[in-house]
Every structure is written in structure tokens, then in C-alpha cells.
Amino acid sequence: MEYFVWNASPIAFSFGPITVFWYGILFATSILLGLEFMKWAFRLEEKNEDTIEPLFLYTVIGIVVGARLGHCLFYDPAFYFANPLKILAVWEGGLASHGGGLGAIIALYFGAKKYKMDFLWLIDRLIIPTAFFGFLVRMGNFMNSEIVGVKTDVSWAIVFTRVDSFARHPAQLYEALSYLFIFILLFFIYKLSKAKVQPGLLFGIFLTLVFSARFLIEFVKVKQADYDTSFLFMSTGQALSIPFLLVGLGFIIWSLKKS
User: Nearest Cα to 183, choosing from 36, 37, 14?
Assistant: First the structure.
């Protein structure tokens, strides 16, 4: 069987000593689009737009710091404890979505407290562009030929020549398409409800769907943690998804009861 062969370069272009990667372009694009979405939501609901940029800065810092620490602590702790300065080497790669999600929530909590805003109101709106952020970041992973799936013979398998010559599940595309669907769903719930959705409901739907998708896709994803998790009967990504999934279900139940 002939499979689709993926051998694209992760480099978008180079200009002298400067090299720009597709991953960086998609990451930056997702941040800018998220900022524009929040400006639109603030205008739609007549909120003070002066707080958008500082709150968004809190969130971006939370995502980057949380994602980096999450990767170091969850996926390769032995190496980073032995080489602590390597934690700062973000340019070498290594960001964990679980850590990024947790970092964003913590940062947004403190940002909302500082600017005297309703935390749940903020997070219900922010998770909508966050789902699109996940879509673009996973497409960046696809451009980098990373976070690949296990070997398979399904007709839609892809050969990532930068990894090896085997046909594999395009796990990063599975995640990207899942996040795109979640973004569309959340956007239409928000739009059709005329922004009067019950507090916590969108956040709960986001956590439940994102980490359900993540849990299922882990079955066909190459193991990322550099230590044995067989005693858990699941991968590190699956184990980390369960608490987020339970919190999401809790928010859905809580918000529906209140309504």
C-alpha cells in the first residue's frame, strides 16, 4: 500500500542569521487571533477593553511557563532535575499542553483578581480562542513532524520521513481536528446564547471535550514520557488528562444545576 509521505521542512524561511519556523508562526498567529477574539467579546458585552491586553499577557505567560514546566516535570523529570538550567532552554523544544492549561488557569485567576473581574466570566470566553490555539499548535507539531502516532497500516497513515520510514497514525492531526471541532462548537454556543451562557458551562465543556479527545488519542500516540508508566496501566498523557476531565464534568453539572 502506498501511503502519504510527509517530508516538509519545519523552517518557513531564513533571513541571514534569523531562522523562522512554521511552529513559531502558527504559535504567534494563535496568540494574535486570541487577542482579537477577546476584544470582540469585550465589545459585544460592553466590558472595559483597557483590561484586555494586561489580562491576555497574564494568560500567555501562564501558558508558556506552565507548558514548559509541565514538560520538564511530567515527561522527563530525571533529565531536568540533573540539568536545571535546561528548563530555560525553551528554544530546544518541549511544551506540555496539560501544564500550559494549568498555567493559563492560575495566571488568569490572579489577573482577574488584580483587575477585579469575574474569573469564570473571563475563562468562559478565553477558552474559545484557546481551542483554536490548540488547533494551530498541533498543526505546528505536524510541520515539525513531531508528536507522531504509532505504526499502523490504515489507509490514511502518513510516513514522516524526518522520523523514520514507517507508516504511522497522524496523531497530531487527530488532535488538531478535534480542537478545531471544539472551537466551532464553543463559538456557536456562545454566539447563539447571545453571550448569556451559564457561568462555568463553556469552561466545563472545553475541559471535558479536550481531555476526552486527548485521552483517546493517546492510545495511538508514541509514548512521550522518558520513564515507565506501565504501573498506571495508561500513558502519562492519559493520567494527566483524568483530573482535567473530572473538573470539566464537575463544572458542567454545577452550571446546569445553577441554571
Answer: 37
